[in-house]
Amino acid sequence: MLSVNNLVTSYGLIKALKGVSLEAKEGAVTCILGPNGAGKTTLMFTLAGILAPDSGTVSLLEHNLTGLGAPKVLRQGLALVPENRLVFADMSVHENLLAGAFTQSRAMAAQVNDDIDKMYARFPILKARHDQPAGTLSGGEQQMLALARALMSRPSILLMDEPSVGLSPLIVDEIFAIIKQLNKDGMSILLVEQNATKALQVADYFYLLDQGKVAFSGTPDQLKNDDVIKRAYLGGG
Amino acid sequence: MDVLQTSLDGLMIGSTYALLGLSFALIFGIMRRINLAFGACLLFGAALAIYLEPLLGWGAWGLFFITMAGAALASAYVERLCFAPHSKRSGAVTAMIASFAIWMQLDEISSQLLPQRTHAYQGLELPTLWLGEISVRGDQLLHFGMALVSIILLYILLYKTRLGLLIRATADSPESAYLLGARVPWLGFVVFFLAGILGGVAAFMILSADGHITPLFGLWSTFKGLIAMIIGGVGSLLGAVVGGLILGLVETHAGAALGAEFRDMVTFGLVFLVLVIRPGGLMGVKVYRTDNAAQERV
Q1: How near does any CA of chain A get to the CA of B195, in Å?
Q2: How many contacts, defined by CB atoms under 8 Å, are there between A and B?
């Protein structure tokens, strides 16, 4: 579904991605693991069109996304939930969701309202807090809001950058349950996580990124038999 | 009766300050841009109107439209030149200093357009209305109405339309707005242009009520706009309106009670008090910040 081919992205002279190729399959949860500085967020930013790659291609369902810029990438069906959530803190929960539907045309107003109702059904806590400023929500609630806001654009694939960052263990469990449910309902997901244990519980396939390159890829089951990888990258366990 | 008359006069002047404060609040409070050149943009619009008036001969309404258009264009120019290249926090100081330089530039151009320093600025000639002992100048009543309509239109634009949602989202977190498909650079331009229009309308009302203009108007309007915003609370549009009204009332009452020479002293005393008692302003909004990215811009 999402094909990344030999992607190179640099900040000035520093190459953060040194030729990354990967594939996210339709209906699957694909996970990208790796230590700090591996290039995970750079990869996400390049896929979402925030950074332009030096070379390589990104394509989604046969459409070339390379170098389109974030607004156009979103219109092609790729939505990113950024790290640290970045909700519109001074705007209400409801307005945040409306803002998620910027790319929908005016004619879609009825559909947008339907979508908001669906989000409220999926995340009842957002319904309860619909007129509160988003900045007053807890971290977990903000993560749900950021997720719901990204879904409002009706993406065909959802990218999530470190959804567990800064959340307590119980909330992390809840967020991963939501990710699992979302995937069960048919959403294709590409997930970047530092919390490898959690991520591997939901992943169908994973890539291990190290120093801007794919160091390993496989199914979580394959990893069970590979102590070297586990010790080297995923902290023993 | 005198108190009532003075209060009414203060309210009339205050409504023009409210609109002026609102235009500053759009840029400083909503977009969080420290645009020092904004007052000079208003001066430029008014100076251009005075310069073109003898050539066009459109009278007071001509002054109105040219002041408004000139201020809006100058404001958009400042945005493109000083602020558009610096969308990140790291560029905020550079942008502010650049806008200070452009204040000087616009001041200088305006001085060239106003060679005699003090020029007459024609107002709308309307009869004074009498309600018993109380009188209201016709043009000031019209200004009050124009300010009210402008404020209501701005409210509808910001809070009831899709463009307004986009503007507020962009002001809140430009990164997220961009990720959700908003054309962030274009929206900054729109807000500066809009603020220029509102500020231009306010400048016309203030100058035509006074009947004259000098090249000091840029500095003067910066003072009044900032004071209205500080009293009301930076970041709150309602605060800017309330602050403007209070400023008008306090100025007029202080002038009537103590004489014109103490008017500004009283105003600055009020600013001092507000800063001591409520540093965030009377309607200071609680700003919700749970992440760093929203503070990427100053």
Answers
A1: 21
A2: 88
Interval A149-193: pLDDT, tens: 999 999 999 999 999 888 888 999 999 999 999 999 999 999 998
Residue B141 CA to chain centroid, in angstroms? 19
How confident is residue B290, by pLDDT bands cut at 50, 70 and 90?
very low
- CA dist., res. B160 & res. A197, Å (int): 45
- Tell me whether residues A100 and B182 touch, CB distance under 8 A: no
Would you mind telling me the total number of residues written for chain B in this entry?
A: 298
Cβ contact, residue pair A88, B166, below 8 Å: no
Residue A228, pLDDT > 70, answer: no
Mean pLDDT of B31-48: 94
Tens of pLDDT, residue by residue over B137-190, are 988 999 999 999 999 999 999 999 999 999 999 888 888 898 898 888 889 899
B residues 246-285 near A, CB within 8 Å? 285
Assessment of whether the complete model's pTM goes beyond 0.90 = no
Interchain CB distance below 8 Å, A99 and B288: no
Is A143's Cβ below 8 Å from some Cβ in B? no
Q: Which amino acid is it at A60?
A: L
Q: Measure in Å the smallest separation between the Cα of A51 and chain B Cα atoms.
A: 12
Radius of gyration of chain B (CA): 19
CB B35, CB B78: distance < 8 Å: yes
Phi then psi dihedrals of residue A78, to 5 deg: -115, 115
Q: Domains along chain A?
A: 2-85+157-233 (3.40.50.300)
Question: Which of the four CATH numbers 1.20.58, 1.10.10, 1.10.12, 1.10.3470 does domain B2-295 have?
Answer: 1.10.3470
